[in-house]
Amino acid sequence: MSFVDRLGLTVPLIQAPMAGVSTPTLAAIVSNAGALGSIGVGATDAAGARAMIAQVRARTDRAFNVNLFVHRSAKADQARETAWLEWLAPVFAEFGAEPPTALRTIYKSFADDPDMLAMLVDVAPPVVSFHFGLPSGAVIAALRGRGICLMATATSVEEARAIAAAGIDVIVAQGIEAGGHRGMFDPTAPDDALGTMALTRLLVRESDLPVIAAGGIMDGAGIAAVLDLGAAAAQLGTAFVACPESAADDAYRAALTGPGGYHTILTTLISGRPARALANRFTALAAIAGDRVPPDYPIAYDAGKALHTAGRGRGEQGFGAHWAGQGAPLARAMPAARLVETLRAEFQRCRDQP
C-alpha cells in the first residue's frame, strides 16, 4: 500500500509541523481537505501535547501528524553563556532592557522525556515524526506497537540510512531551501547542504522507503516536480504560514511578504542550531558575530526569545524567529482549506499536461 493510500490522503501533500506556528485548527483543516495536517509539540510538555492532539481529534477524524524534537541533550556552559549574553547586552540596551542573568534549557528532547512517550503510546496519533535525530529502538518499537506510522527527517544520505535501519516507515528529505531548523542529527558536523531535488533523488534511489520531499516547495508545480523525481508526497511549511489559521503574528506575516523574503538566511544566532529565517535585524547580527559560537540549542533560544520580547516592547519586530524557506516570496495568504484546494488544482493541471 502506498504512503498516500495508507493515510487516506486525496492529495500527496503534508503541511509541515512548524512548532509554534502550526495550530490544531490548522492541522485539522488541512487533514479534512485531504492532505496530512501536522502539529509540532517539541516546544511543549506531555500535558500540552495531549491537549493539542485532543483538539485536532475534536476537529477531524482523518490522519494527522505529531512532530517531536529528538535533539541531543544541551550541555550547559556558564562561561560560553555569559559571554553570549555580554555580547548581546548592547542590543538589549537599545531597547532599555537587560539581558537575562542566566539562560535555561527551555525545551526537553523527546529522547529525555518518558512522559511524552507514555502519552503518545496512550493516545496513539496516526502519525508521529522526528526532527533532529532518532529516539531509541525501544521507543520506536513502543510506538510501532500502537500501529503509528513513523517518519523522520534526513538532510543527507547517511541520516536516511540510519532512519531506515531504525525501522522508521517514511523518510522526509529536507533540502537546504527549507525554512526553520535543519533536521541534521549533528549540527556540528559538516553539512553538504543538499538541495531538495538532489536529496530527494538520492534518497529515492538509495532506499525502498517512501520519501517525502521538503524545502522550497510552494505550489502545485513544485509538488508535481518532486513526485516526478520519485517522492511519495511533498511537505510544505512556509506556504501555510500566511494562512489565518496559523499562529504567526502580524509582524511575521508582514515580514513574509517584505524584502526579507527574498533574502532568507541560515543562522545559528537565534536558537543555537542552523535554521533558515527571513532576513531581519537578528540575522544581520551575523555580520558582527565574528567567531562567536552561541550556546547549545535550545539554551541560546532563551536569549533569542528575551531579545525579541525586549525589541517588541519598543515597537521593533526585527528580532522575531521568522522562519521561512527560500520560496517565501511565493506565499499566498488564504484560508488553509482553500490553499489545499488551490495546490490540488495546480498539481492536477501539471499532471494533466501532455
Which features does this protein show?
2 domains, 354 residues, eight-stranded parallel β-sheet, alpha/beta, 40% helix, TIM Barrel
Structural write-up:
The chain has 354 residues and is of the alpha/beta class. The protein folds into two domains: 1-73 and 109-247 and 331-354, TIM Barrel; 75-107 and 258-326, no CATH class. It has helices at residues 3-6, 24-32, 46-59, 78-94, 114-123, 137-144, 157-165, 196-206, 220-228, 238-241, 250-256, 281-284, 286-289, 299-313, 336-352, and strands spanning 13-15, 37-40, 64-69, 127-131, 149-154, 170-174, 180-181, 211-214, 233-236, 265-267, 275-277. Strand 8, helix 9 and strand 9 (233-236) form a beta-alpha-beta unit. Helix 4 runs parallel beside helix 14 (299-313) and helix 9 (220-228) crosses helix 15. It starts with a helix and ends with a helix.
Low-confidence regions:
none
Percentage of residues in DSSP E strands: 5-15%
CATH architecture of the largest domain: Alpha-Beta Barrel
The first-level CATH class name of the largest domain: Alpha Beta
Main sheet, how many strands, which sense, barrel?
8 strands, parallel
Mean pLDDT: 97
| Gyration radius, in Å | 19 Å
Q: Sketch the topology as an H/E string, one letter per element.
A: HEHEHEHHEHEHEEHEHEHHEEHHHH
Strand elements, count: 11
The CATH topology label of the largest domain is: TIM Barrel
Helical content band = 40-55%
N- and C-termini, Cα separation: 27 Å
Strand order of the largest sheet: 1-9-8-6-5-4-3-2
- How many helices? The count is 15
